[in-house]
Every structure is written in structure tokens, then in C-alpha cells.
Specification:
- By secondary structure, chain A is mainly alpha-helical.
- Chain A folds into two domains: 1-61 and 114-130, ACP-like (Non-ribosomal Peptide Synthetase Peptidyl Carrier Protein, Chain A, Orthogonal Bundle), CATH 1.10.1200.10; 65-112, no CATH class.
- Chain A is 48% helix and 3% strand.
- Chain A contains six helices and two strands, in the order H-H-H-E-E-H-H-H.
- Chain A has helices spanning 4-19, 40-54, 66-69, 83-92, 99-103, 116-128; strands at residues 76-77, 80-81.
- Chain B is built from eight helices and seven strands.
- Chain B has a seven-stranded parallel beta sheet with strand order 3-2-1-4-5-6-7, with helices on both faces.
- Chain B has one domain: Rossmann fold, CATH 3.40.50.
- Helix content of chain B is 46%, strand content 15%.
- Chain B is of the alpha/beta class.
- The chains are: A mainly alpha, B alpha/beta.
Chain lengths: 130, 252
Amino acid sequence: MPTQDEIYTKVSATLVEALNVDEEEIRPTSTLQGDLGAESIDFLDIVFRLEREFGIKIPRGELFPESIFQGDPDFVQNGRVTQKGLDELRTRMPFADLGDFEKDPEVTKLSDLFTVELITRYIQGKLSSQ
Amino acid sequence: MRLQGKVAIVTGGSRGIGRGIVQAFAREGAKVAVVYKGSQEAAAALVQEVTQAGGQARAYQADVADTASVEACVKKVEEELGAVEILVNSAGVIHDDLFVRLEPADWNKVIQTNLGGTFNFCHAVAFAMMRKRAGRIINISSVAAEHVNPGQTNYAASKGAINSFTRALAVELAKRGVTVNAIAPGFIETDMSAAVRNKAGDMIKEMIPMKRIGTPEDIARVAVFLASADSSYITGQVLTVDGGLSLGAVAH
């Protein structure tokens, strides 16, 4: 089982390739969309590369829960994630720290959850449960 | 040579417009996969002709309407020629009939080959192109998508859909350096248009401001442009290549 540092280094290298960014631009707190310029098609590529890099399977919607991104009315109303949506996020993303987001759950801020740190934590969880 | 060493797939490559594109790409230095469905002899003859002229081409059998067949074909091309950098969807059929008489089978056949075939090949190469951050997709449409003729509901629908598909796919792949464009030919000297040309005779030439029927080479030159670095800032466009036919001038 690789250490957290080792996982982080590999995740960074994956993002450098997938997003065509410089390694120096990547910090643990960098957000994929806001800071590193990822678009929806890039998320597919990132998932594909992480699967290959770590030898894991990432089921669709597990790392990036699409139902919430796509504005399912059960989960998103008036541009804000509903209580049900927050519960869903908590269940689906136990690896995410929702503290700040819950205070002001604007759906546009959802993308800020997806940081390099979060992916590292997610991969760590996946590897330890194997 | 503008396409030196590039791997290109040309569907419907053994005949008509596709054949002209294969020849032009090979002259520009590309390694061309000639995809044919039934015309094995024509494909083999073309490969021989290209090879004798110092170019590189190889024939691959596939049914563009069959997803599994297309995926297997692309895999084989990748193994034998390398990563696909250029895709030309030129395979197409016509089954004209007045709509009230049109058999559902003829509707399906045209949609599945022209539109479904374009989907299948794009789907088989897009992810790899996207990941390489390089790729050219060229879909062969038709002026008949916008300038419609009776008896062609199926054909016009398939080509109109290809135009929309081209734009929509272009938007998805633009950021990743993959361009997606279409060429809309007018009347071109091919087996496919022979029946119409025979029936209408010189009347067709009279309708075309340039007073001549196009050749596969007329289309192939534009395909080379869209496949080359010269067109790197063009995406999602449908280029009409028809000698002025679609301008709709009544007297000239």
C-alpha cells in the first residue's frame, strides 16, 4: 500500500498529463475546475488515467457524482443543493470534507470540493479497501 | 508533404469520393487505412495503385453500421499502422424513393450507414484522439442536406444529422486539439451519383454555375486541407464544395 505522499505524487502526475498543466501549478488545495481548468470531458480522462495508474476500477458517478452536477431536482433547487442532496453527497463522497460547503451549498461552488487532496483521499480509500 | 507519417482511416475508401481522398492522402505522405464493406477487389486494386506510386495504404474490411465490426477494425488499424490521427467518414449509401412509398428498411439502412457509421467510427477514435490532444475528423455530408430533393427524405435526414453531429462533437473535442469538420459535396462524378447524372444529363451542368460536375479530387483537396495543419483553427464547419450549385442562382 503506497503512502499518502506517494499517492499524491502520482495523482499530481496524472493531472499534469490529463489537464496539460505544469506540476508547479498543482497544490493539494487546487480545485480541478477553478484552478486547473478541467472541463467535463477532462473528468472522463482523469478517471481513465487514475484507473490505469492505480490499477483500480472507478464506477461511473463514484468520484464525481453526476446526478448532483446535472441538477437532479431532488438534489438541487434554485441553484442550491437541498438537504437531501447534502445527505446524498455525504453518502456518496465519504472522502470529501463538506464542512465549508454545507454552510452555503450553492451548486456552483460544488466544483470547489474537487481538489487534488480529495482525489488523493479517494484513491487512498479505494486502495485500502482492496 | 502535408500529412507525412500520419495514420488516416478513410471509410468507403475503395470507391467514389473516399477513393479520391485515399489517393490524395497517400500522395501527402499519410499511411492510409482503406475501409471497405463489400468492394474487396476495388480496395485491393487501390492499395496496389497507391503502393506502386510510392504511397502507403492498407485495406480493412468493416461494416460501418455495425459497432463491433468498427471497433475491431480500428483496433486492427492501431496495431498495424499506429494511433489514428485522421478519420474521414465517407461511407454512404442512397436508397431514394418517394416518402409514401419508402420502405422502413430503406430508411433504416441509410440512417444506419450514413449517420450510424459516422457515429461508430467517431466513437471508436475520439477518446484516443482526445487523450493525445491531436486529431482530425472529417465527415462527408452533402449539399442535399440543406438543398433537398424529392425522394431523399432518408438521405437528407442522414446528412443533415451529420452536419449537426459535426458541430456538436466539435464543441466537445475543441479543447483537446481535435477538430471536427464536414464537407458537403454537390454533384460529383461517382458511381453513387451515376443514376441521377444519367437521368438528368446536361441539365445538371446547366444548374451548376461552374458548368461542370465535380470530381473526387475536388473533394479530396479540401479533405487534405482539413486534415493538415493549415486548418488548425477551423472546427465545427460544414464546407460546401459544389461549384456554386447551392447558391441557388436561377439564371447564369
